[in-house]
Amino acid sequence: MSYQFLQLEQHDLVAYVWLNRPELHNAFNTTVIEELHTCFKQLAIRDDIRIVVLAGRGKSFSAGADLNWMKQAGQASAEENEADALKLAQMLEALATLKQPTIARVHGIAFGGGMGLASACDICIASTDAKFATSEVRLGLAPSTISPYVIRAIGARQASRYFLTAERITAHAAKQIGLAHEIADAEDLDKKVQEIIDALLLGGPHAQAASKQLIQMVSNQSLDNQLLPQTAHHIAQVRQGSEAKEGLTAFLSKQAPAWTSNSNNNN
User: Which domains does the chain have, with CATH numbers?
Assistant: First the structure.
């Protein structure tokens, strides 16, 4: 499928989704949101893709909302505004719930919705020149649709500061508060991303999908009598799968599991 504002590339088992509005710092509008949503939905059903990397062309990862799009939203009816916002929320959910591990490759600015995209990915690798911000309050807005993912990434206490001040967060500060997992100089950013890809390819794809489901199930739940049987049921289902049996057999025989052989053959 061809896109107006995205570029989709596949390198072996890895899909690279490039935001491609460099002249506007990859800012969102309705088309960008719809294309991202479509792209994520299509990737979710592809078994030949093990990892998804989200990145931005040009000087920035994403500046968030396109100002002209925001202006139009301000002039729309309440019903139109809610429908528009729901499309953004659904796109972020599609990214956050992809079965494949996702990596945000962040450079330049990641403001507003751009920070939301980075937070919705499983892993965030940032260039040392990257800057993040939930800048909405300075426009008289609130970071509503991105809030579940940003709060998941940095916690409610840090969100209390940055949602309210809209301060710019440096790459080093982003790592300190849990937003970025790793940072690297600009010239080493792709090398660092590749290191994470190599580590991910050592894991079983079904086990990774199950682990993502586990995080969503357990996060922010209290350790009570309801959660315990949920986690027990989860691991029991995973254990019965062919991938788990393959992994255990390979470990006991001191051999590499089949999925790593397949990964190596495709690299």
Answer: 6-200 (3.90.226.10), 204-260 (1.10.12)
